[in-house]
């Protein structure tokens, strides 16, 4: 088996409209396709970043909560590259998003910080 790349990341949200607005209006993902699956009472939203398909956003009625703190088992966080982390943090804060203080990775000397999506999924900004 020779893996080529990560194809997509699937996220289940509790408030479809809030998460759709967060990922599109705030983070700038573009919508590839939006499908309502009546048999499951579920939306599936395919999102792209810079033309590359990257996120499937799902809604399911009564989806159970999952621990989302950074040290829980499973997916720790989803990281996005940014050119200027201070500008990105300022923009998030302008929209009322809580963002941790910017830190510097002691091994790479790159700056990074964390914030959360509407369901508390930990998201990272990593300055390249």
Automatic annotation (TrEMBL):
- What CDD domains does its record include? VOC_Bs_YwkD_like
Q: Does the keyword Metal-binding apply?
A: yes
* UniProt domain VOC: residue ranges: 5-128
Q: Which domain of life is it from?
A: Bacteria
Q: One Pfam family, short name please?
A: Glyoxalase
As one GO molecular function, the record gives: metal ion binding
Has UniProt tagged this entry with the keyword Metal-binding?
yes
Q: Which InterPro entries does the entry mention?
A: Fosfomycin_Res_Enzymes, Glyas_Bleomycin-R_OHBP_Dase, Glyas_Fos-R_dOase_dom, VOC_core, YwkD-like_dom
The identity of this protein, by name, is VOC domain-containing protein
Record organism: Rossellomorea marisflavi
